[in-house]
Design a protein that fits this description.
Layout: H1 2-9, H2 20-36, H3 42-54, H4 63-78, H5 83-100, H6 106-119, H7 124-136, H8 144-153, H9 158-162, H10 164-171, H11 174-195, H12 206-220, H13 223-239, H14 246-262, H15 264-268, H16 278-294, H17 298-307, H18 322-343, H19 347-365, H20 379-388, H21 392-405, H22 410-422, H23 426-439, H24 446-449
Helix pairs in contact: 1-2, 2-3, 3-4, 4-5, 5-6, 5-7, 6-7, 7-8, 8-10, 10-11, 11-12, 12-13, 12-14, 13-14, 14-16, 16-17, 16-18, 17-18, 18-19, 19-20, 20-21, 20-22, 21-22, 22-23
Protein name: Tetratricopeptide repeat protein
InterPro entries: TPR-like_helical_dom_sf (IPR011990)
Organism: Phenylobacterium hankyongense
Length: 455
């Protein structure tokens, strides 16, 4: 079973498949386990046989993954009180669904995890996968109660301390998501020191924790947290002599967003990341445009928008995610166009740009998790532009649509409150403004950031 454990743990996850060479090595290890288990308990032999199937055209994207899941499911039915088997079976169903970006068999995965949690509500493995499974199935809010317990159960495990932030982001608890990831990055730093690593960025999920903290801080207005995390990300990217993975580029892009939003002068002092980092250069241009927007310089915003571009060659490393990368660049250019028009007092032109950007965000980017690659709901900017154009009813409608996908977004709530006040509904406006203030942290004050030009 030690050989089984190693072979299972080195296999694919919902985030990463494994290649043919890795499969061959793990298939050999599973075969070794089978040889050692001859004459052993039936349960162990069946677990090992299931794992042997996993590494025959499996690895996260093949028929072997389904064979493994079916075998594990049969084991879960035959041993209905065994939480470990239930959790492994649920994970086995989730992996191919994640790599196909489908909801296939997620219902069964949730049933298995739900049974495990009913038997043991503080099972960390079950909670971890329940957060993932509910997020994948579009019902992430159902994990909120369990998310609140996970950090207490595993206070020294960086990834499990981070995991509640997935649920918190979905339900609009953005500052709680900041806290979880700030805690995780501190654990990463301690782990790196203990392992003798030069910095925590060598740990697999550290960049994920940094980006999540930064993205959540952008939503909650926590400038202090956003700048601490974004400074670290940008300094490391500048010092790196190697190519950045698409994932790291998206994380560094989020760091640029934070600097443009909360530290305009600091952002404008940031150097060009270089022509060999085309996606990052586009996001650098966007963040410079945001910085100029904070200063009220429409001409400079338009100048950055005109220079903001990324060719197909610039985005080749994104492979299957190239459409999303293209969408990010398109949205960035349109948002700057809208920002400039708002500064110039042309809300109708701004609304047209923001509307197109929101449509692209919905069609190409959606609610990409971990957190969303594009840092905020552009539709709230559309709502702000419509309000400035004298259309409070349309503004309120757009704000309400935004809040369905981005619940409790303080800036959207502030725009909605302004629209409701224009429409004569002072009670609703007071309630929504109070809700916005509860979710907002730090400087600048909510009223300033939610001003129509800055939404």
């Amino acid at each position: 079973m030690c050989a089984w454990g190693e072979a299972w743990a080195r296999g694919p996850t919902i985030n990463y498949p494994i290649d043919a060479k890795q499969q061959a090595a793990l298939a050999a290890l599973a075969d070794r386990a089978a040889g050692l288990a001859r004459g052993g308990p039936e349960k162990e032999r069946r677990l090992i046989a299931a794992l042997q199937h996993r590494y025959r055209n499996g690895g996260g994207k093949g028929a072997g993954d389904y064979a493994f899941a079916r075998d594990m499911d049969r084991l879960a039915r035959d041993y209905p009180q065994d939480n470990e088997i239930a959790i492994v079976a649920a994970d086995a169903w989730m992996i191919p669904a994640a790599h196909k970006e489908s909801r296939e068999n997620l219902g069964r995965a949730l049933e298995l995890i739900g049974g495990a949690l009913a038997r043991k509500p503080d099972d960390t493995g079950a909670i971890h996968f329940y957060i993932h499974a509910t997020e994948m199935d579009g019902i992430g809010g159902q994990a909120e109660g369990y998310a609140d317990t996970l950090q207490r159960l595993a206070p020294a495990a960086s990834h499990l301390v981070h995991m509640p932030s997935h649920t918190y982001y979905i339900v609009g608890r953005y500052e709680d998501a900041v806290r979880a990831n700030m805690d995780a990055t501190r654990i990463d730093a301690a782990n790196a020191r203990r392992l003798g690593l030069s910095d925590p960025w060598k740990l697999a999920y550290h960049s994920h924790n940094v980006q999540f903290a930064t993205g959540a801080a952008l939503m909650s207005g926590d400038a202090e947290a956003a700048l601490v995390q974004s400074d670290a990300a940008l300094d490391r990217a500048a010092a790196s002599k190697t190519a950045l993975s698409p994932w790291d580029q998206v994380a560094v892009g989020t760091a640029y967003f934070a600097q443009g939003r909360f530290a305009p002068d600091r952002m404008l002092a940031r150097p060009d990341p270089g022509a060999d980092r085309g996606y990052l250069r586009a996001m650098w241009r966007y963040a410079r445009g945001e910085a100029y927007a904070r200063k009220g310089d429409a001409a400079a915003v338009r100048r950055e928008a005109a220079l903001l571009q990324a060719s197909a060659a610039d985005l080749k490393d994104f492979e299957g995610y190239r459409p999303q990368a293209v969408g990010m660049v398109e949205v960035a250019r349109l948002v700057l166009t809208g920002r400039a028009a708002m500064i110039e007092g042309k809300p109708a032109l701004a609304a047209a740009a923001f509307r197109t950007a929101a449509q692209i965000q919905d069609a190409k980017l959606g609610r990409i998790s971990d957190p969303p690659g594009w840092w905020y709901p552009v539709r709230r900017s559309l709502a702000a532009a419509l309000l400035e154009a004298g259309k409070p009813d349309e503004a309120a409608a757009q704000a309400r649509v935004t809040l369905k996908a981005w619940p409790n977004d303080p800036v959207t709530l502030a725009v909605l409150a302004q629209a409701e006040r224009k429409l004569g509904d002072g009670n609703a406006a007071d309630l929504h403004l109070a809700q916005a203030r509860r979710g907002w942290r730090g400087e600048p004050k909510l009223a300033a950031l939610a001003s129509l030009a800055g939404a």
